[in-house]
Amino acid sequence: MTLILIRRELLDNLMTFRFAAATFIMLLLVVANTFVLIIDYERRLTGHNDAAKMHQRQLQEKITYSAGMDRLSADRPPNPLSIFNVGFDKRLGNEVQVSHGVVPSLWDGYMHGSSNPFMDMFASMDIVFIFEVILSLFALLFAYDAFAGEYEAGTLRLVLTHPIGRGYILFAKYIGAMLCLLAPLLISLLLAVILLTTSTSISVNTDDFLRIGGIIFTSVAYLSVFYLIGLLISAATRRTSTALMLSMFVWGFLVLVYPNVILTVIPRSEAPDALRTSAFNRIESIWDTFDRERKHYLVTDDFPGEDWGYELRGWGSRSAYFWDNPRTLMYTYNSIMDFEGFGEEDEPKMPHAQKHFGFLGAQTIDAAGRTWLIRKPALEEIFIQPANVERVWLKLSPVGLYDAATQAWAGTDLLGIRDFFHAARQYRQSVINYLYDHKVFESRQWFAGDKGAADWSGLPQFSFQRDDISTNAKRALPDVCLLLMINVVLFIVIFLIFVKSEV
Amino acid sequence: MVWDIAKRELYDNLNSLRFALATVLLLGLMLTNAVVHLREHPERVQQYRERVSGHQNHIAAHAESSLYDLAQQGPGDLYKKPSDLRFCAEGGETFMADRAVGGYHRWSTGTLKSFWILTYPSATPNRDNVRPEVTKVDWGFIIGYVLSLVALLFTFDSISGERERGTLRLTLANPIPRHTVLIGKFLGAFISVSIPFILAVLVNLLVISTSSTVHLDAEAWGRLGIIFFVAVLYTCLFLAFGLLVSARVQRSAVSLVILLLVWIVFVVFMPSTLVSIAGRSTSSGPTYDLWERSSKLHGELRRDYSPRRHKEPEGTTKRMEMDGAYVTEDAEQQEQLHEERLTRRIAEVHRARAITRISPVTIVQNLIESFAGTGFERHLQFLENVQTYVREFRTSIVDTDNADPESLHIFGVRTGMSQEPVSPEAVPKFEDTLNLSKDFNTAAMELLLLTLFVLVLLSGAYLAFVRVEV
Lengths: 503, 470
Prior knowledge:
The complex is a heterodimer.
Chain A: H1 2-14, H2 17-61, H3 65-68, E1 73-75, E2 95-97, H4 127-143, H5 148-153, H6 155-161, H7 166-198, H8 206-237, H9 240-265, H10 273-300, E3 314-325, E4 330-342, H11 350-394, H12 398-410, H13 414-437, H14 469-500
Chain B: H1 2-14, H2 17-65, H3 67-73, E1 76-79, E2 99-104, E3 108-109, E4 112-113, E5 117-119, H4 139-155, H5 160-165, H6 167-173, H7 178-210, H8 218-248, H9 252-278, H10 287-311, H11 317-356, H12 360-372, H13 375-403, H14 436-467
Antiparallel strand pairs in B: 1-2, 2-5, 3-4
């Protein structure tokens, strides 16, 4: 009997105009946008490759290590799954300098991809956004007359004269409509995946297919939430016209208004300024100590005079400066000495200078490490925590949950981007180990290229691999579970209303 | 007769659920908009004032030192004035720099210092912004998205619904021409949509104007009037479209599905998809290109001048002239480089904006931006103001130098220019202004386009209704 009911529902829905329209529009939008998004991805990939090549070239051109350490950077390639949910992939910095004087963080990143910053003012698109808007609308359009229409037509009475439980009828309605709604969703997603795999520039591996699977599963859960909301309205109002109006306004509110308004309505949770100031003062004092020790060394070493460049008269450039940014709690010292050659009289000064740079290098690394110990928790508190509070507010709407979960699957969420900066920090550590192992700070090549240029071939290479699928799943799971929970709760509520209602 | 039909429509709508929901929704949004504006705007204005006085102090400090100092250091940063009508259209202001840098220094060798050049910084607010991204709830959003949706929800069943119920037949059985019925229906729907919208706008403006921190002048009210007119025109567009589809389609449900799909495609998706297509051909090149080209140009110039300069002994007029030519030519070259990049970027945005004009929501948002004094066109106006001012500033330096009989009139070197201090009052100050007639010029095309859309759809609705069989 249930099967017959499901078949009836399915046929009822399949023959309608809205089904044809849904399929057509979904296919049109998804295919057109995937096409555009792939081109956009390819452009970003080219931008990344160009930037990485240029960084490599700039590094190779440097004949001294101190100048090269000022040019070493890590580049983040665009995420191919950003086609599904762009998240933070285009927004946050995609290159970061890796020097021994700073522990790199998200707030030190730069953008190489965005060549025209004005273009950022146009909203960017992704496939999940299409689903967010269209799937929810179609789910409501399929649901609004499911009960109300049958009340009005009187067919519900007829069905209930048969010896079947009301739960079965509800179940049959749900399955029938969901099967109908799944058709356009799956077809359009499959087409998107096919377009993705045929593109030569995008390499999709097994893990990526699993991630796409996760996105599809989440989409189905999202679709079901909105269908159930529609059913609830339909069962509660009993009139098609009222149900339709209410559904449309609920849709407008949940999809259009709530995600945009809520963050301006809630009071902005800002970390107190005192926190930033106190953290910055502590960081400043680290570097003050560093500066005192540096000067102390220059005064007390065997060489007369306090010049950090040891009065070397050569051909080249030298610069040394402190650099800070109170907003992002950035503080560092940078000394670059980039000489091509020296005069005769400089030779005796060399051992002194080499010893000094050896001391300075270790000292800078130490100060940078201590700065990071203060900076990391402070940045977390100032930037990340308020943002996380806002994210929780957004998740009160199923749209927010869906967005967050798909971002996590695609790896374009904040955690996914922070993985890159984590990798950059690890890379910096391996570079420092290399510099120590090869005694680069004490070497002549640190500041002079006259007796053999710096050798960059042995330096460890940076490569960023996205975490495996289990990490994505772990990050997406809470939101997916919440979506499923909303489904169950809605289903139970509808069941209760439907069972108690008089026909 | 038209009025009777309109009145009936109106009574029908006033008691309906959609009217109540639309009122609540629009009121809530407009109230939020006003409160947020009052929270953010005074801070912006205060910041602008402080910056302007900083700019004036900068000029005064250098003017009192010497003319060379002023000519070498430049006028300092020039700031964009925040619009009082920012609550109408946010206009992507955060993605456009709030200043032009007029005092950017690059090098100094011995006694020679590079002259200032005008550069255009870019705003990248997103680079380390970990907060979730949201659209600002401004009038542009409320009118562009919410009001258009409400307009469709009020008209989707206005003809097809009556046909379903059979009342359309009844109406047409009376001796009333069909166009009267259509106009009546249009007027009825228009007034029903206008009531919640006007209510919401009034509440919004009441909250804003009663606050002591934000002041709207007469021109601002005039601009608000134009924006309101644009909103009305835009509502008419969707009402006409709703009537057109409603007249052609037999069932209300089908009419709604068609309307919503078209709305989604044109309003929600079209703008961003079209921009992605337009953004394909980026010509402005990455940022590091500029630095590489800049240092290359400077290197070439240095190699060109160096031997010739050093041939002349220090202190002679010949040497001073050579040094001066080197410095000024370098500044001109570099400034041109920055300006070229800016021009390329602007051209790119213009292309993208031209393509997105197919979508009515982009048209209306552009219009609101233009009249609210925010957004891209306004940024271009600001840049124009800056460039005019910079020319004025440079002319005034030359004039002051010419007025001093003891000066050698050699620009670019300290000893070649007037040694007298300059009175700070004599140096022009930068004042950013907004010009309504200019805004009107940039908006005229879009205004005409919007009117054209409305007329086409209205006549379409008329034709559809006249030919329809009841």
